[in-house]
Specification:
Shape of chain A: elongated
Strand content of chain A: 35-45%
Largest sheet of chain A: 5 strands, antiparallel
Number of helices of chain A: 3
Largest sheet of chain B: 5 strands, mixed
Order of helices and strands of chain A: HEEEEEEEHEEH
Strand order of the largest sheet of chain B: 1-7-2-5-6
Strand content of chain B: 5-15%
Radius of gyration of chain B: 18 Å
Order of helices and strands of chain B: EHEHEHHHHEHEEHEH
Largest interface: A-B, 21 and 19 residues
Number of strands of chain A: 9
Oligomer: heterodimer
Helix content of chain B: 25-40%
Low-confidence stretches of chain B: none
Number of strands of chain B: 7
Mean pLDDT of chain B: 92
């Protein structure tokens, strides 16, 4: 009887080891956002009241399985307590798949491949100012790229942060920052 | 020899608020004769039946997380969400058994056992990204009672036949439901180049003009 139990336990252990080895060999998807290697912000459009600038960020799947990015948004963080001269809005747009509706179509990233996301920010002047005047008092603008990822594990929300500095936006707008 | 003309019919994006019979009547009534076969995309029929679920709505079991690992990563059941949605409709133990049987079958050279034993939804579920927006963030099941749906389509439109088809750009063409008297394999062959279009297009209906004569000549 003991021999039978030992044999059963041995088979179970062997099966567990084989399955674990199989999972280890197969691996997982792993998406990293290369926010530090983002391109410099570039000017997309400027009017009297607003300015639109964007940067391109790589989403790289360094894993060994296919990953899915189900949704992606750019969340700007400019509280009016800090500066209320402009309203900031962010957008995420996939390189090669431009959309005008601010809808992010879910996308696969094959193993060891990348997609590129345009993180766009639109700054609109407030309080009756034109955008150039409003930007003279601009502060650094942090932005979270928030994305939903799924693959071999249940869906999860991740964030990566980039910052549009006041110096960068001033340079793009062709203005000089005020010495506040 | 009768020539089959393939006519793709554009529609607006259909949702679970739509009735597929009303939609077909609205978009095809003037274009259909008693010689034609109407084919409808499988995922669109399912969407109009409300057979969709968001990954966020699913409670993922450890068993689903475990089982999905044995599906190649391109498959719709390769994610825990796809697997869980299958388990929710076909039963978790049935799916697990089918997966195990499929594994054993592969060892002895018999492929496809998982899809045979796991229930009809095994081959029909589309995971996230598998359907056009706004359903790209949903898991879309296969349609319910496809044979009944095609029967009612034929009755309503007075056409020669109706099919529900699962077709993609990778030369997969499969008939999910077909009316009596219509040879599904002939329809599948005609749809092989995916006249429904890719995910961005809104042509979920395809009319096969003069299919009756074409089928008669094939006998």
């Amino acid at each position: 009887m003991i021999d039978v139990l030992i044999a059963i336990a041995g088979v179970l252990v062997a099966c567990t080891v084989i399955v674990k080895l199989f999972f280890w060999k197969e691996g997982n998807p792993k998406v990293i956002v290369c926010e530090k290697e983002r391109t410099p912000f570039k000017l997309d459009a400027v009017t009297e009241k607003s300015i639109s600038v964007s940067t391109m960020v790589e989403f790289r799947n360094v894993g060994t399985q296919c990953a899915t990015i189900m949704d992606c948004i750019v969340r700007t963080l400019l509280p009016y307590e800090q500066y209320d001269g402009v309203k900031a809005e962010g957008r995420a747009e996939r390189e090669g798949a431009p959309r005008e509706d601010d809808y992010f179509e879910s996308v696969l990233i094959q193993k060891q491949e990348s997609i590129f996301i345009h993180a766009r920010v639109i700054l609109t002047a407030r309080k009756g100012m034109d955008i150039r005047t409003a930007l003279t008092h601009m502060v650094d603008l942090p932005m979270d790229i928030v994305y939903t990822e799924l693959g071999r594990r249940p869906w999860a929300i991740h964030k990566a942060r980039i910052v549009l500095t006041a110096d960068e936006i001033a340079k793009l707008a062709g203005i000089k920052l005020a010495d506040d | 020899m009768a020539e089959v003309k393939i006519v793709s019919v554009p529609t607006r994006i259909l949702t679970d608020k739509d009735d597929i019979l009303d939609i077909l009547e609205k978009y095809t009534k003037e274009k259909i004769t008693e010689n034609d076969v109407v084919s409808v995309a499988e995922s669109v029929v399912a969407i109009t039946q409300g057979r969709i679920v968001r990954p966020e709505e699913l409670e993922i079991s450890p068993l689903a997380q475990f089982c999905c690992r044995f599906i190649p990563d391109q498959g719709s059941l390769a994610s825990p969400h796809g697997m869980q949605s299958l388990m929710n409709v076909e039963g978790q133990w049935r799916v697990t058994f089918a997966l195990f049987a499929g594994f054993l079958g592969k060892i002895i050279g018999q492929n496809g056992l998982f899809y045979k034993l796991g229930g009809e939804q095994t081959a029909l579920i589309d995971d996230v990204t598998g359907t056009m927006p706004p359903f790209d963030k949903h898991i879309v099941y296969g349609p319910e009672n496809p044979e009944d749906v095609v029967k009612r389509i034929k009755e309503r439109l007075g056409c020669f036949g109706a099919v529900i088809a699962d077709v993609n750009d990778l030369k997969r063409s499969r008939i999910v439901g077909v009316t009596d008297g219509t040879r599904g394999e002939l329809v599948a062959k005609l749809l092989i180049d995916n006249p429904f279009g890719n995910a961005s297009q809104k042509t979920p209906i395809v009319i096969l003009k003069n299919f009756r004569q074409y089928q008669e000549e094939q006998k």
